[in-house]
């Protein structure tokens, strides 16, 4: 995501501008790197602009945590909406969602932060449970026993988490990789 400082100079920043800048830092360098001075530099403004919107860094972090929980809830709703698709399409779509580069970056950053933020961790856990349940239901609808559906859903969840955590260290799956993985999971 490009630095927005050049486009924002001379105009008033919004809370969303600050949250977007904080999110960019969270994604690139982690939660510990989010500092008022760094955000001001990124946005090309003084600390006075920061204090116009937030009382302190803690207030920003609370707003950012709320924002991340909303992102997780949106993802949960998107997954729930997949229930309308046929089971194999549901599984394929889940694979497409997890392999989206931007989504992967955001999700990996949120998961890392969730290690130290219990409310954010609860949102991540809820998302994982939704992913699992949507997948398990799809496998049951494909005629797999509860035990087999559970195992396949577990594999899908852990492959997705592993891919997100692998980040740039692991080559992105090709379309053939995704197709073969779905075939392996749905094969009897």
UniProtKB/TrEMBL annotation:
| Top-level division of the source organism's lineage | Bacteria
Q: What InterPro entries does its record include?
A: Homeodomain-like_sf (IPR009057), HTH-type_TetR-like_transc_reg (IPR050109), HTH_TetR (IPR001647)
* One Pfam family this sequence matches: TetR_N
Query: Which residue numbers delimit the DNA-binding region?
Result: 35-54
Q: What keywords would UniProt list here?
A: DNA-binding
List each copy of the HTH tetR-type domain by range: 12-72
The name on file for this protein is: TetR/AcrR family transcriptional regulator
């Amino acid at each position: 995501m490009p630095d927005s400082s050049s486009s924002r100079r001379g105009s008033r920043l919004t809370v969303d501008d600050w949250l977007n800048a904080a999110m960019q830092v969270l994604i690139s360098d982690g939660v510990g790197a989010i500092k008022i001075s760094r955000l001001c530099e990124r946005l090309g403004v003084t600390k006075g602009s920061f204090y116009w919107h937030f009382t302190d860094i803690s207030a920003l972090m609370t707003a950012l945590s709320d924002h991340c929980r909303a992102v997780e809830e949106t993802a949960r709703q998107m997954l729930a909406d997949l229930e309308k698709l046929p089971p194999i399409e549901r599984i394929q779509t889940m694979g497409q969602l997890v392999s989206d580069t931007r989504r992967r970056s955001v999700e990996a950053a949120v998961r890392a932060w969730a290690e130290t933020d219990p409310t954010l961790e609860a949102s991540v856990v809820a998302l994982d449970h939704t992913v699992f349940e949507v997948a398990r239901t799809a496998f049951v609808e494909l005629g797999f026993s509860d035990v087999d559906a559970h195992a396949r859903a577990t594999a899908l969840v852990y492959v997705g988490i592993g891919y997100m955590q692998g980040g740039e260290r692991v080559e992105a799956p090709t379309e053939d990789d995704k197709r073969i993985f779905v075939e392996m999971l749905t094969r009897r």
